[in-house]
Amino acid sequence: MDCRAALEKIGLKADGLLPREAEAELSVHLAGCPACAAEDAAISATGTMLRALTGIRAREKAPALDAMRTRVRAAIVESREARRRSSWRARWAWIPAAVALAVLALLFYPARTDRSPFHPSTFDVAVEDVESEIATVALVDKGEDLPRVIWIIEDAKT
Length: 158
Fold this sequence. Notes:
This protein has 158 residues and is mainly α. 63% of the residues lie in helices and 8% in strands. The chain is built from four helices and three strands; from the N terminus they run H-H-H-H-E-E-E. The protein has a three-stranded antiparallel sheet, with no helix packed on it. Helix 1 runs parallel beside helix 3 (34-92) and helix 2 (20-32) packs antiparallel against helix 3 (34-92). It starts with a helix and ends in an 8-residue tail after the last strand.
């Protein structure tokens, strides 16, 4: 193995991507090449230093991370409680609307029952033709309370 291939494999070894067979071949080269062995030692030391630095930084940032975790957990709990409260309201919000609708229906429902049922034969009907071949309008002129109007629209094909 030449030094160029060895340097590529040293980088793969540092990243943990070098297969075992290639690692054995690299070890043989490193035993015979002091320059590549020094490069391997420097890269390995760099990895060790980076891991140590990361550990130190993590310990420095631990209180801030713990505080952030606490805030996030509190926000999640608060969100769940708000969702529970709003779902309770949404689940029962239709009841007042239904009660109001029932009250309005009772208030405005016609209370008089002395009216006779609707019988078309008892009404005088005046028919007016609209200036069209496809529509007819029937006007019912008689009614006890108010004149009633019925619009009948017919298709010319029927």
